[in-house]
Amino acid sequence: xxLRQLKYFTCLYEEGSVTRAAQRLNIVQPALSMQISKxxxxxxxxxxxxxxxxMIPTETGEQAYRLFMPLLGQLLEARQTLIHRNGxxxxxxxxxxxASAANQALASTLAYFVEHHPNVELQIxxxxxxxxxxxxxxxxxxxxxxxxxxxxxxxxxIDLVDEELLVxxxxxxxxxxxxxxxxxxxxxxxxxLPSRLHGLRIVIDHSMATLGQELTPALELDDLxxxxxxxxxxxxxxxxxxxxxxxxxxxxxxxxxxxxxPGLTRSMVCVHDxxxxxxxxxxxxxxxxxxxLVTGLNAIHFYKEGAIDHELD
Length: 313
Description:
This protein has about 325 residues and is of the alpha/beta class. It contains ten helices and eleven strands. The chain has helices at about 5-15, 20-25, 30-45, 60-85, 100-115, 130-140, 200-210, 225-230, 240-250, 280-295, and strands at about 50, 55, 90-95, 120-125, 145, 155-170, 190-195, 220, 235-240, 255, 265-275. The strands form three sheets. Strands 3, 4, 5, 6, 9, 10 and 11 form a seven-stranded mixed sheet that branches. Mean pLDDT is about 85; it is low at about 295-313.
C-alpha cells in the first residue's frame, strides 16, 4: 500500500467522480483508475461501486475512508516536518482571501514572506467568503481568509482578528443622529453597503436580524475600497471596518462614528479542510498575515486615536 494510493482513494471518495478526482489531483483518469484497482486488489475487496451516477463507496470503502483519513493526515504532516528539518521552508501555497483582507494585509505579508522564504511558490485568489469555502473543500485552495459568518463541520478555524465596524461618511457630511450611533437608527440613513452575497453584509444583516431589523441600502457596491472612495464624493453613509477607513481618516477625507452597544464586529478567520493539515509553509503564511492584521506588520496601522468623530453639529 502506497501513500499515493491513499491520496488517490481519499480524493476519489470525496469527489465521487473519476473525472473530478483526476482534475483535482492533476493526473490522467487511467492512472487514477489503475491505482484504485491495485488498492482494491491488495485489500481483496471493492472500494467503490461503478455506476452511471459516479463512484459510490461500498461498505468497505466507507470503513477504509474512516481509517485512512487520520493516517494520511499524520503521514503528510510527518513528511513535511522531516523535509523541513534544516529550517528551510519550501513548497507551494494556494491561498484564498476576501478582498478586504487582501487590501489591508496582503502586500505587507507578501513582501515579508518572499524576502524571507524565497523557495515557497505562492498563488493568491480572491472571492466571496462562501466561494472561497467551497474551493477549500474541493481541494482547490489550501486555506482561505474570510469573514467569520459561516459554519462548516469539515473546516478547521484559526481566529485572526476581531475588528470594530464604524459608521462612515465623507468629511463634509455630518450625521443627524446621536453618537454613538444606535443600531436602530441605521435604517434611517442613506446607506451604501455590499450586496447580500458579501461576507461583511452577511455579518451586518445577521446582527440586525437579532434586533428584528433589516437594512435596505440605497446603493450596493461589493468593493469596500470603492465604497470608501465613493463616500468622499457623496452624501451617502456606510458601515465599514476601521482598517478600510484608516487612509481616509488620516487624510481628513472621511468621518467615522462609533456604534452604540452592542456595536458591530467582524471576525476575520483562516479556514482549511480539517482532513488536510496545513503545510509548514502555509502555517507560517497564516501566522504572518494574522499578525499583520492585528498589529500592523510592515506599515498596516489601525485608525489613529482621536480620528473618530464623536460630535454633532
